[in-house]
Structures are given as structure tokens and as C-alpha cells.
Model the fold of this input.
Amino acid sequence: SLPDDLGGLKVLVTAGGTREPLDPVRYISNRSSGKMGYALAAAAIQRGAVVTLVSAPTSLDPPAGVELVSVETARQMYEAVMERFSTQDVVIKAAAVADYRPKIVAGQKIKKTGETLILELEINPDILYELGQRKEPHQTLVGFAAETEDLEANALQKLRKKNLDLLVANDVTQPGAGFGTDTNIVKLFYRDGRVQSLPVMDKKTLAHRILDAVVELRSQTHS
Ligand code: C5P
Done:
């Protein structure tokens, strides 16, 4: 049986890929399935946490017992997370948030006109960066990084820049890792400099492994 080691803790998980509208019928998005975030939410429920799942659109059923907050865009996700952050003990940002959104959202469907169409994009808020700035000592912040090159250097830079306790980094070019798959291959980067390379595993198993790391971190800093 599973430990009740998150009993009484409030855990917020974000999941899915945000959708950034272009016009009433089109959007820009990414290949995130939401599986990792949903697996984390389910695992946290099993271990006794009170779980809020802030989800961009996915084709998954929310795990029983979570409070589901459905959003579409990065800005909606930003609002939903910021509103709730101060009451959370653990925040795990598994969502694939669009870095940019179309600068203009057309009121009507964009017509086919010339041979080319130029879209102007503007930057979205970095939710995780903002959380890192606001984080209180009792809060544990976990980020994800999907990389296609220089995994280690990029991961360490994100861990520091975003003021995270733990960064889960995967090389999405490896078979069996990243978007859409049921398995993942990750490295865990800890704030204290430790790095753990995990073997390929099911996202459900990995979810529990990540929560083990969270529990361990919290026992060090809060005992
Ligand atoms: O910088 P990068 O997008 O690779 O960082 C990934 C981490 O930051 C993920 O945990 C993701 O959910 C989070 N993120 C965010 N807001 C953004 C972009 C990324 O919270 N606008």
C-alpha cells in the first residue's frame, strides 16, 4: 500500500499544452498530452494530498478527487495558478506553456489572401519564474524542462533562474521520452547540486518517484 506521506498537504499541478488563439477557429499549441501532469495529480491524491489540477486542454479524464481548473491559454493558466499559489505547499509545473501568443487575435476567421502570411507573436508570462520569485520557505517548487540539446546546462540554468527546488529534465529527442509517450526518461536536478539519472519508466511510476523526491526535500528543510 502507498504511504500517506503527503497527507494534509496542498499540491497544485499544472498539465497539458496551452492553446493560444489566432482567430475564432484556430490556435497555436504543442504536442503535450497532459499524461505526466495527470499522473502526478493521481499519485498525489493516492498519497493523501489535497490536489488542484490546473489543466490546459487534454483528452484525459481528471483523476477522481482532484479539484479541476480548466484553462486554455498561458495567461489564463497564469491567473489560475497565481490566485491559488499562496495557499499551496507544493506546486508542480508539468504543463507545456506557450512561450509566445499571437499579438492580434482576429475577430473573424483569417482569410486566405497572399502566398505568405506573417504572424506576429508576443511573449507570455513565465508562470514558473513568477512563482519562484514569490515562493515562501515552506513551499516546494518543481519544474519540468523539455530539451532537445544541452540538457544539463539548460536544466541547471533553469533551476537557478526560476528558483526551483527540483527540476525534472527530459531529452525529448530520445525514443520513449517526452511528449505523447506513456514512458519518460528524465534526470532530476536538485537545488543542492545533486543530479539523479532515472531509467526509462512509465509516467505513473515516474510520478511517484518525483513525489518521493518532494517528500525527501521537505523532510530535510522542514524537520
Ligand atoms: O523555460 P522552459 O519553458 O523550458 O521551462 C519549463 C518549465 O517552466 C515548465 O515547468 C513549464 O511548465 C514552466 N513554464 C511556465 N510558464 C511559461 C513557460 C514555461 O510556467 N511561460
Notes: Residues 203-222 form the longest helix (20 residues).
